[in-house]
Structure formats: C-alpha cells, structure tokens
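Entry 14: structure prediction run for Probable cytochrome P450 28d2. Input pasted below.
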Amino acid sequence: MPIFRNKYNRCVNMFANKNGRTVHLKPGDVVTIPVKALHHDPQYYEDPLTFKLERILESNGGGMKSYRDRGVYLAFGDGPRHCPGMRFALTQLKAALVEILRNFEIKVNPKTRSDNQIDDTFFMATLKGGIYLDFKDL
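Run finished. Output tokens:
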C-alpha cells in the first residue's frame, strides 16, 4: 500500500475522543486517516465519485476553504505540519495553467475514457487509461 494514501500518527499519551464516541488510544497505538476514503465520502462530498470542478469554487458557497475548515480536505495534510511545499506547488500549477490556456486551444482526444473511472493503484487520483488531450497553437 503506498504511504501517501494515509496519514500516520502515533499516540504518545492516553486520549479519549471528545465528540461523544468512545475511542480509547494507548501510548504506542497507531492512528491512520484514510485520506482517499475521506475525499470520497458522500457525507462530506455530494456525488463524490463524479468530477465536479464547481464544488471547489467559492462562488458556490464555500470552496476549498470550507472543506479545509471542516477537516475533510487533506490533500496537503493539515495543521501546523502540513506540506511545506503546498503554496509553492499551487503557485506553480496556477502559473503553468495560465500559460497553457493563453497559448493553446485544448480538446479531449477520443482515446480518453469517458467513464471517469479512477485508477486506485496509484497514490494520487488519476483516470484509468490516462487522459489524452489535443493541443492547437492559438
């Protein structure tokens, strides 16, 4: 199992959950958060297996900040020890997308599957069979 699918922590003190559910951890117990399962939970994401870009837009009543504030978006981890490269990675992605969209007309190639099945053998979400795009200079 790839390590990036889960977030691992080790309990070092006795801990009793404060949300009313009885869960007791002893020193040395391992706590695992299955991030992929959390990101695909219909309790937090409506129709979670469908790609819906609009769900992360702030104009739709929340955006990514609302998911992070509820603790249900952990792509970069959370808290004071989240991924130190998060802001750099997001800035690089935004800059690359701007340049691509400014310079190319992009169409989905027919070789790309249309059933949007996720390949769960890879540690990051990716479509089975890959994504094929056709780029035309503007």
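Notes: Residues 1-5 have pLDDT under 50 and may be disordered. Will compare against the previous run tomorrow.
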